[in-house]
Design goal:
Length: 396
């Protein structure tokens, strides 16, 4: 016999259990939703915090770069830089619109429509440079080699001194030749690398050349972007080998320089550079290093502009300041070239590079081309841009 009352109790119990489970499930879902919401809010807060920290770091980096530029250059130049910001941003916006309008097909045509022979040649050159880096191993220096390098340097300095050169001329403050002069301060490295010397760009803007220049700057200088570039330019403009040579000249014994060296190779390199300074200090003052420092700074400025790490306006201002320093300390393109040879040998001695004699030959040949060529490509361009007279006439 069916017990109706028992069945009703069981049904009631089942209903209560189902209701309880439903409530528990709903409560669990509510808690999960609340937890998900809390996690999302926490993630968003962390995202905003990271964004604020990144913005603060970026602002700090920009302030650091402004401080570096302020240390390197005059207040007038910094004021000009501030005035240019709006114009620079406008040009960036216009470039973005131009690239966007090209579309994918247009960009691919620009990328692949270049002369593939030039690209292949550039890649081959880059590969050769990498092979040379891997295969070159410095040999041991000895006293005889050092003495021979001094002799070669003296020979090259005399050779440069004998070259004809126009007399220095007065440049007014707004003389357009200052711009050309600043670019030509990079003449020796530009000549050795077959760079253009007609304007700010060192090469045509094609991807493979930009990659090659970036690789060159990273490999040779350890510079990977704007901040490191500005740090290096500050060093070259304020200290550089001018300061280092003076330090070595003023140091009584090599031991004072080598005591804190990390290893024997570094100690030997410092001792070589000290002997170099002691050998030449009665003939050449620290200011004679100005050409070596400003020449390399000018080349880095042009490379940085080409790679987009600094604007063209910044590069123009930097080259102007470097030009004024070079013209103040040196008297001619001949002396500039001699300074470059002089600093180059000290650099090679510090690097323990026994190929220094070949290097001096290449530098001397580049200077000769710039001073005596027939104005074809980079030849003769120094001759066609006279050195600024030391006493400036800034009256218009």
């Amino acid at each position: 016999m069916v017990n109706i009352e028992e069945m009703m109790k069981r049904a009631q119990q089942a209903s209560e259990n189902a209701s309880k489970q439903l409530n528990e499930s709903m409560e669990k879902s509510r808690k999960i939703a609340e937890q998900n919401k809390a996690d999302a809010e926490k993630a968003e807060a962390e995202k905003q915090l990271r964004k604020q920290e990144a913005e603060a770091q970026n602002a700090a980096n920009q302030q650091r770069q402004v401080e570096i530029l302020g240390q390197m250059f005059s207040p007038e130049f910094m004021a000009q830089m501030t005035d240019m910001e709006a114009m620079i941003q406008q040009k960036v916006d216009e470039k973005v619109e131009e690239v966007t309008a090209l579309g994918l097909e247009g960009m691919m045509n620009q990328l692949l429509g270049e002369d593939m022979g030039v690209i292949a040649a550039a890649l081959e050159t880059l590969a050769m440079e990498n092979e040379e880096d891997e295969e070159t191993e410095p040999s041991d220096f000895d006293q005889a080699l050092e003495e021979e390098l001094y002799r070669v340097l003296d020979e090259k300095l005399a050779q440069i001194q004998s070259l004809p050169e126009p007399e220095p001329v007065l440049y007014t403050q707004d003389d357009p030749r200052w711009a050309k002069f600043g670019i030509l301060l990079s003449g020796i490295i530009s000549n050795l690398n077959d760079h253009q010397l007609d304007d700010m760009d060192v090469e045509e803007h094609i991807p493979v050349m930009e990659q090659q220049i970036a690789s060159l700057v990273r490999r040779s200088w350890g510079i990977h972007g704007r901040s490191e570039l500005l740090d290096t330019l500050r060093y070259l403009s304020q200290e550089g080998y001018t300061f280092r040579y003076q330090l070595f000249c003023d140091t009584v014994t090599a031991k004072e320089l080598t005591d804190e060296a990390e290893d024997e190779e570094e100690r030997e390199a410092l001792a070589r550079a000290w002997r170099f300074a002691q050998h030449y200090k009665t003939r050449f003052s620290p200011s004679f290093m100005t050409g070596w420092d400003t020449g390399r700074a000018a080349m880095l400025t042009r490379w940085g502009c080409y790679l987009g790490w600094i604007t063209e306006g910044e590069a123009i201002g930097m080259l102007r300041e470097l030009s004024l320093r070079a013209a103040q300390e040196l008297h001619s393109w001949r002396e500039f070239a001699q300074s470059y040879l002089f600093g180059g040998l000290m650099w090679k001695l510090l690097c323990s590079d026994t190929s220094a004699e070949c290097y001096l030959g290449f530098v001397a040949d580049a200077a000769i081309d710039l001073l005596t060529g027939q104005a074809e490509d980079n030849e003769g361009q120094w001759r066609n841009c006279p050195w600024p007279a030391r006493r400036y006439d800034f009256q218009a």
